């Protein structure tokens, strides 16, 4: 997701490599700007500082942690005077202008994080006010104010509105809400990619299936943000035809598309122009959340199992937002982020910035997830050592795959 919004930002300014961040290249070993204290990650924050910080704080709250004050202060310090957020402000005291341009995605991500953190109602209200002020006449949002609406931006703003306690259906421009915008990007069932959502129409007005936009669109149509739990199973698995799709139908059709897309391999693939297709870890993690939210738990679990086997190196290379995405995926299907194929997503994320604190005793189980894999197998091992020997125990240790 950090990578998704970076892609959207690049696309908005017409950079050919717009989709490249979808596979998340290694963080820059030599940032162009100094990484500020309080910010998670060591990579250059120019294009994703607010995004990765927001996802980090939201993931920590989801796990029951209270983010460090320094981390929250860094995020609130990035807010512009009008309530918006830019991707990164190297000089927070400076203006948000053409050189430091605010965008809907960074703002919406910050709203979700600050709403979850609590105690920042004023900042949240100002940010939501700004988002409402830049809504397009079709009811949606573009990445930058004034730009054409797209599925991803509209969906992340829906998540922000919901997090702030505002019903997205009540946020209208020219009489249209974001739920009027999303069906326009849903590809009809009988066409190639039927059920999927496009990022936005191409230059000829054609809708092309986009897995990233589809995953985002499922959550948007369901009125959910980055954090979601397993929903009720859909009435039917296949794409449903309708002259005027309801938000629920948009979500179910998109969920059916994603379920089919991950059915064979367990993952989505990136399709960069001129490059060989390869597994797309970030979008697969997003798809897990979307599928679970739409009640499609079986394909969601299959995709998560694939991530457990293959996404560890990607997360280590990509940084905080990647770990947060995987934590959201684990949360969506009830898995333990403390045991991700022998690695703790929780410890790995928390080690990249100021240490958070457990919020209360009620959330101790979330913190214990870090050691769940190790502790469970240690207990089993104690019982087995006497009968089968420590060597067999260590070599025969099997990992949960569901």
From TrEMBL:
Domain of life (superkingdom): Bacteria
Annotated TM spans: 375-394
Signal sequence region: 1-24
Entries under InterPro entries matching the protein: Terpenoid_cyclase/PrenylTrfase
Keyword Transmembrane annotated: yes
Matching Gene3D superfamilies: 1.50.10.20
Assigned keywords, A-Z: Membrane, Signal, Transmembrane, Transmembrane helix
Listed SUPFAM superfamilies: Terpenoid cyclases/Protein prenyltransferases (SSF48239)
Protein name, per record: Terpene cyclase/mutase family protein
The species this protein was found in: Streptomyces bangladeshensis
């Amino acid at each position: 997701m950090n990578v998704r919004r970076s892609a959207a930002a690049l696309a908005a300014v017409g950079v050919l490599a717009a989709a490249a961040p979808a596979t998340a290249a290694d963080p820059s070993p030599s940032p162009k700007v100094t990484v500020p204290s309080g910010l998670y990650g060591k990579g250059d924050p120019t294009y994703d500082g607010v995004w990765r910080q927001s996802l980090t704080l939201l993931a920590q709250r989801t796990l029951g942690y209270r983010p460090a004050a320094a981390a929250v202060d860094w995020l609130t310090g990035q807010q512009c005077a009008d309530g918006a957020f830019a991707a990164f402000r190297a000089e927070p005291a400076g203006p948000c202008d053409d050189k430091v341009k605010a965008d809907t995605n960074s703002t919406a991500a910050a709203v979700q994080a600050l709403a979850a953190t609590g105690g920042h109602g004023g900042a949240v209200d100002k940010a939501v006010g700004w988002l409402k002020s830049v809504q397009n006449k079709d009811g949606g949002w573009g990445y930058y104010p004034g730009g054409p609406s797209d599925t991803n931006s509209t969906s992340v703003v829906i998540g922000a509105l919901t997090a702030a306690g505002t019903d997205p259906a009540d946020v209208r421009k020219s009489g249209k809400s974001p739920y009027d915008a999303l069906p326009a990007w849903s590809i009809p069932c009988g066409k190639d990619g039927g059920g999927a959502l496009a990022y936005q129409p191409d230059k000829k007005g054609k809708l092309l299936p986009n897995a990233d936009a589809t995953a985002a669109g499922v959550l948007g149509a369901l009125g959910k943000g980055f954090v979601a739990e397993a929903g009720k199973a859909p009435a039917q698995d296949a794409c449903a035809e309708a002259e005027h799709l309801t938000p629920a139908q948009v979500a179910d059709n998109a969920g059916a598309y994603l379920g089919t897309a991950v059915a064979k391999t367990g993952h989505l693939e990136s399709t960069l122009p001129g490059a060989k297709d390869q597994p797309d870890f970030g979008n697969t993690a997003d798809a897990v959340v979307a599928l679970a939210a739409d009640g499609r738990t079986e394909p969601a679990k299959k995709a998560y199992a694939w991530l457990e086997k293959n996404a560890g190196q990607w997360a280590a290379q990509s940084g905080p937002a990647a770990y947060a995405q995987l934590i959201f995926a684990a949360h969506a299907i009830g898995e333990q982020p403390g045991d991700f194929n022998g690695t703790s997503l929780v410890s790995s994320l928390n080690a990249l910035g100021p240490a958070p604190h457990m919020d209360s005793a009620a959330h101790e189980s979330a913190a214990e997830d870090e050691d769940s894999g190790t502790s469970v197998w240690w207990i089993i091992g104690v019982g087995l050592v006497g009968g089968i020997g420590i060597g067999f125990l260590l070599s025969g240790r099997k990992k949960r795959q569901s």
